[in-house]
Amino acid sequence: MNRVLDFLVNVFGFSDNFRMALNKDYEVEISDDSEATASKEFPVFETSKLLISKKKMFIKVKKEVGKSGSIDQARDVYKSVSNPNIITNTSMINAYGLNGMGVEAINLYREIPIDERNEVSQICVLNACSHSGLLDEAWNIYNEINIKTEKIITIMVDCLSRLFVFDEAQNLIDSYEKSHRPSVVMYITMLSGLRNHRNIDLSEKVYHRMKSIFPTEKDSLVSGAILLANIYSSLGEHQQGRNFRSNQLRELKQKVKIGLSWTEVNDELVQFKAHDRSHPRSSEIYAELDRFAAELIAHGYKFDSSWITRPIREYETIQSVLCGHSEKLAIAYNFIQRPIPSIIQVTKNLRICGDCHAATKLIAKIRQRDIIVRDAHRIHHFHSNGKCSCQDHF
Ligand SMILES: [Zn+2]
Ligand SMILES: [Zn+2]
């Protein structure tokens, strides 16, 4: 019982797909006849409670779980579980997937008896295929699944979009819509892939279709408009990107959510917004950011202005705008600690931008430090070899 519990605690940091599968709340039920009365708080940002009753253990973790771990640790604990069940297996598949170990994820999935495989394990293995670029394997697994739920189809659309197979993604959406109400998540998923592909024609089509099908889904339309504006900017059409973004936001009467990053240092949770100077150690943080910039440039790094979606003010430079992003501030704050934390962990409420992603990969390498950034979409584990676990699919 306790080992299962330890395992879950260790892997919850990886469990973005549980959240997706379980409707934004973690809710896992494990039958167990052993008596257990302990209850324990998880380190979380808002509310979390672990309730253990005599026969059943319910784990219900609300909002973000602020815990991350390493794949080796997860695997060690997994191996120590004498009779892995569907939950432990699925957690491990998910951990493999998020760490770019698609083949290991598929092998473990294949070991689960067919009648025990459930929607969560199917989502996790398809996600693992997606993040490791294993398209044929994903199709094989997808075709074997008898009950294809909206979530299963969405994850397949995600897989196809990440691998730039947009016609097949569109076909899946079209056939889904023949017998179901359209799903806005599928469209946003496809748009994310289109942004990475910088495919402007198809992006415009998808966005306009979204607007006509989902006129009241304001949050999703704002996300779509920002993705499309990013594509214009990434093609050098900065003015068009800015105009498009502001026109759409005005039309949708929405303000963009402010990007925030959090990091926990010495048991204290610190929050940063972009260009934040409210922290008492701000001058040290900005001095560290200057050192980051100098080291990055010395290693051949070029700041990527395509991720700037607002006009640059007179006193700013491309570098100063990008270095002021909240996740870079949170990372710099860790590096001014003594000792520097052995693993740096940051949580961001929006998706990490492409410049922060590329810069963090190089910082992890130059400074020889693992950096874990949990963004609105997934966990990025930047390793000291300069690679990210998402393999640049984000
Ligand atoms: Zn950024
Ligand atoms: Zn990444």
Keywords:
single chain, 394 residues, alpha+beta, Serine Threonine Protein Phosphatase 5, Tetratricopeptide repeat, 3 domains, 5-stranded mixed β-sheet, disordered N terminus, binds zinc ion
Question: How would you explain this protein's 3D organization?
Answer:
The chain has helices spanning 2-12, 16-21, 71-80, 86-98, 102-111, 119-132, 135-144, 150-162, 166-179, 184-197, 200-213, 218-234, 238-252, 282-298, 318-323, 326-335, 354-366, and strands spanning 26-31, 48-52, 56-61, 260-265, 268-273, 343-348, 370-374, 379-382. The chain is an alpha+beta fold. It has three domains: 2-147, no CATH class; 155-252, Alpha Horseshoe (Serine Threonine Protein Phosphatase 5, Tetratricopeptide repeat), CATH 1.25.40; 261-382, no CATH class. It has a five-stranded mixed sheet with strand order 5-4-6-7-8. Strands 1-3-2 form a three-stranded antiparallel sheet, with no helix packed on it. Mean pLDDT is 80; it is low at 1-69. It comes from Rotaria magnacalcarata. InterPro entries: DYW_dom, PPR_At4g14850-like_plant, PPR_rpt, TPR-like_helical_dom_sf. This is DYW domain-containing protein.
Concise description?
With 394 residues, the chain is α+β, with helices and mostly antiparallel strands. It is 53% helix and 11% strand. The protein folds into three domains: 2-147, no CATH class; 155-252, Serine Threonine Protein Phosphatase 5, Tetratricopeptide repeat (Alpha Horseshoe); 261-382, no CATH class.
